[in-house]
Write a structure and sequence with these properties.
The chain is mostly beta strands. The chain has one domain: Immunoglobulin-like (Sandwich), CATH 2.60.40. It is built from 1 helix and 8 strands; from the N terminus they run βαβββββββ. Strand 2 and strand 3 form a beta hairpin. The longest helix has 4 residues. It starts with 8 loop residues before the first strand and ends with a strand.
Amino acid sequence: MFDSDEEEDVALIHGRRDVWQGMVNGGTRAIGHFGWRPAANLYEVDGGALVRVEAAGLRPGDYRVRLKGNRLVVFGERRVDSPPQAVRCHRVEMPSGRFRVELPLPWQVDGKRADVAYDAGILSIFLPRS
């Protein structure tokens, strides 16, 4: 379940390596290759931290979760396509394309024991304390 592209990185979810290689150099806001930033909550829970990221419409392989030092990075791509019968679009509020969210963690965590789940459009990541 885990891979390691660089010494300080622990990959928690496997994605499409060909798409994601070299995309991790952006900042914490939507810049460069990343078009939007999903909302995220960081909670302190018994034994660690729980992060929840609002990311409706993702499929396995659409996102990656990484631990870079003491920062959690979630990035990927979401596609919200127009229906084929659409003549024109009058309103667009659902962001589409590449995204990235980066959160500093309040303490050291053990990425090898992390638990990642995706349900009902919410990506939940439990990171136990080291």
